[in-house]
Specification:
48% of the residues lie in helices and 15% in strands. The protein folds into 3 domains: 220 residues, Glycogen Phosphorylase B (Rossmann fold), CATH 3.40.50; 168 residues, Rossmann fold, CATH 3.40.50; 227 residues, Spore Coat Polysaccharide Biosynthesis Protein SpsA, Chain A (Alpha-Beta Complex). By secondary structure, the protein is of the alpha/beta class.
């Protein structure tokens, strides 16, 4: 509550563990952020995994109105193997719990939250994972079912997890005994990268603990809103000790079964300590922390102590008595709390760049940074021998901790993020559409735009010469009471003979908004499609395009098979490469003008060419998977063939994807050769086996998509035989259409393919 007893808003924290006792980094951060939010006047609720047999600590009860504790799930080896074989990131499923999901849904239905803050990668899947996004795409999110407004979701990414796994793979690959772990991390890094990008893209705001981690997130999810909320400590509670113990002590602390810490301990004792003892034979090494792994316990010996669990008071006493705090971390991401604690305690720090990441330590000013064992050892020896250098560096590090890492300096930024999210500022925006003979569907699109909260300023529709009642329906719906009451102004312009590009350019030129969103007739808009599509423009002036998403709404088995074959699932998308369809996209008017609008010389594939023109201009594309439209796939093989024929003809006209189309021709020629070879007994089973393996590989992703999207097992079994037919029909259509487009291009004296560089791929 605020000072006058009023509530600023409601916030729900979603945590992997109870934040008290705050005995390690995750709990420390979570507790202090939650406390800051409560102190700022927000009403706070909490749901977390924990031991339900324990009473709730008074420190937590004093902050929260509602607290839900769910038992930590046990995950079997079989479940982990299934996750690995399915191509899923293991970490995303580590805390999978139907009970947690159910109780979280209940909280979101029972109360209308302004903000939901998700703490860590393991928890993000409950609201930002593929399954959660599919529910939301169909207006089945818990808040939508009861008529609540959608909460703003904040993703607090404690580590850039894909970077952690990538660095672990690099380090472990140097030792043959760790090669299996290196391979595991290499596989997981690529999987986590895609999922972490999805979580960041789907969140309304992301938090990172350091500039380095924020940079990693922006690399995998361009245009996302990332605020650096550093890790912190209660600096005044640490008293500087001027009398380190004798003999000189080198101190490392952390949770000693955590993989980066285990590697740090082994590297320190085996590679760095011999260098120290060559110059300072009496030096002692203390490895302090809970749950030491067997590998760490084996390091204990003369001059090396492994303490095991220490209370907070004991840990502080050991730290205060250290001569040098060393942080030899070679893998990971995030910010080490033990570095911050050493800075606050006035103990000089020697660290690797990984170990000091996020702390603000400048080499030679606040501490010493070294990457290899010899330099790290030399830096420690230098500090052990020079008391004045230790004192000066420790003093400057303490000042840095006070200015940058005390919670009082950090938490106001989080409150600013909340207030910005809740403010609901929106740029002046317009929606455009171009139609022809859409009398059956255009009214629903107008109604869908009018129901958006808030709605756009206007909707501009260009009709390309309909010979049905499309224009009459547009005028009829634009004068309906619900549309008028929403404040949406609908205008229609008739341009007989205008193709899609010409229609969009005319609509965009007539629109008044600084941001223009495009949509197609025949789509059904999610309830908050528009607000999610335009919000990133207000939050980040550098974003030029927001790429919405689309899902199929099939009604027949053919359409289900077609959707599984041709439409990507949200987890398939790489935000760095994704090119949006103009059935769900928004762009700044200035970027629309810079690109010269849509290519009016092209009848199909125009949105792809428009996207590529924007890419070449360096425009930032921000993927927003929650700005979703639904549409029905083509209802017959004939309609699908014609659609893909036109798409491929458009590729040919634009001179795009020559290699991709050449590979398709080659694959079918190779398949026919293998099929003929399989009929000759002298060649044995090899041709047939290769043909079968190729077919399985070609159909693998559609089969997985169908398994995910099929409502019932019977639906899956009925649609499965249709997948090869869909593949063949689509491929034949492309192989027929592409040379037609190339001939059109060649006959006009244009080069056979567009040689301008692109760095993107699309998903078919």
């Amino acid at each position: 509550m605020s000072g006058d007893g009023t509530t600023t808003g409601r916030v729900l924290f979603v945590m992997p563990q109870m934040p008290w006792p705050a005995t390690q980094g995750t709990a420390l951060r979570n507790f202090h952020l939650m406390k800051a939010v409560a102190d700022a006047g927000f009403e706070v609720d909490l749901i977390a995994f924990g031991d339900t047999r324990l009473s709730i600590a008074v420190e937590i009860a004093a902050l929260c109105r509602v607290i839900e504790i769910v038992p930590v799930p046990m995950r079997s080896l079989v479940a982990r193997l299934r996750t690995f074989l399915a191509g899923e990131p293991d970490l995303a499923w580590r805390l999978s719990s139907p009970e947690f999901s159910s109780r979280l849904d209940s909280m979101l239905r029972d109360r209308e939250y302004d903000v939901v803050q998700i703490e860590g990668f393991e928890m993000a899947g409950f609201l930002l994972g593929p399954g959660a996004l599919r529910r939301e795409a169909w207006d089945r999110a818990p808040w939508t079912l009861v008529g609540h407004r959608a909460p703003r979701i904040v993703f607090d990414d404690h580590n850039a997890e894909y970077q952690l796994q990538a660095s672990a793979s690099r380090v472990d690959s140097q030792l043959p005994r760790r090669w299996l772990r290196a391979i595991y991390s290499w596989v997981q890094a690529s999987r986590i990268r895609r999922r972490e990008a999805l979580y960041a893209s789907a969140a309304d705001a992301c938090l990172a603990v350091s500039d380095e981690d924020a940079g990693f997130l922006r690399q995998v999810a361009p245009g996302v809103s990332v605020e650096v909320i550093a890790n912190g400590i209660d600096v005044p509670s640490y008293r500087v000790s001027g009398s380190p113990t004798v003999p000189p002590t080198v101190f490392f602390a952390g949770k000693l079964d955590y993989r980066p810490n285990v590697d740090a301990c082994e590297w320190l004792v085996r590679s760095v300590v011999p260098i120290l003892r060559a110059s300072v034979p009496e030096v002692r090494v203390v490895l302090a922390g809970r749950d030491p792994s067997p590998a760490v316990r084996m390091l204990a010996g003369p001059g090396v102590e492994v303490t095991g669990y220490l209370s907070d008071a004991e840990m502080r006493a050991r730290l205060a008595g250290a001569t040098v705090a060393v942080v030899p971390i070679r893998m990971g991401s995030g910010t080490r709390f033990k570095v911050l604690e050493a800075m606050a305690a006035g103990v000089p720090v020697v660290a690797t760049p990984f170990g000091a990441a996020g702390s603000g330590i400048v080499d030679g000013v606040h501490g010493l940074l070294s990457e290899d064992a010899s330099d790290l050892g030399a830096s420690v020896v230098r500090l052990l021998r020079d008391a004045s250098l230790r004192e000066s560096m420790a003093g400057r590090a303490r000042q840095l901790a006070e200015a940058r890492h005390d919670w009082s300096a950090i938490t106001p930024r989080l409150i600013d993020v909340y207030r910005h999210l809740i403010s609901d500022l929106r740029p002046t925006s317009s929606v455009i559409a171009t139609v022809r003979n859409e009398a059956r569907t255009v009214g629903a699109v107008i109604s869908g735009v009018a129901r958006q909260q808030p709605p756009p300023a206007e909707m501009v529709i260009v009709d390309g010469g309909s010979d049905d009642d499309t224009v009459r329906v547009i005028r009829e719906f634009s004068s309906r009471q619900d549309v008028i009451a929403s404040g949406l102004r609908v205008s229609v312009r008739s341009e007989p003979g205008a193709n899609i590009s010409r229609g969009r350019n005319l609509a965009g030129g007539s629109a008044v908004g600084s941001v223009i969103a495009a949509v197609d007739a025949g789509t059904v808009l999610a309830s908050d499609w528009f607000s999610r599509l335009v919000a990133p423009f207000e939050r980040d002036a550098g974003v030029g395009v927001v790429s919405g998403f689309f899902v199929g709404a099939p009604e027949t088995d053919w359409e289900r098979a077609l959707a599984a074959t041709t439409l990507p699932l949200v987890e398939d998308i790489d935000p760095v490469r994704f090119l949006p369809s103009s059935r769900s996209v928004a762009f700044r008017r200035t970027e629309f003008a810079r690109a010269g609008g849509y290519p009016e010389w092209l009848d199909y594939g125009e949105d792809l060419v428009f996207d590529l023109a924007l890419r070449r201009l360096g425009v930032v594309f921000r993927f927003q998977p929650r700005a979703v439209v639904r549409f029905r796939p083509r209802p017959s093989a004939t309609a699908f063939f014609l659609q893909y024929y036109r798409y491929a003809r458009g590729d040919g006209k634009a001179g795009l994807f020559a290699l991709r189309h050449a590979i398709r021709y080659g694959a079918y020629i190779g398949g026919m050769v293998l099929a003929m070879g399989a009929s000759h007994r002298r060649l044995g089973v090899l041709p047939g086996a290769l043909l079968l393996a190729g077919a399985i590989g070609y159909l693998r992703r559609p089969v997985l998509r169908l398994a995910i999207t099929a409502t019932l097992p019977a639906d899956f079994m009925r649609c499965l035989p249709l997948l090869p037919l869909v593949r063949v029909v689509g491929d034949v259509a492309k192989m027929v259409g592409y040379p037609v487009g190339l001939w059109w291009r060649y006959s006009r004296g244009l080069p056979t393919h567009d040689r301008r560089p692109t760095t993107v791929r699309t998903i078919e």
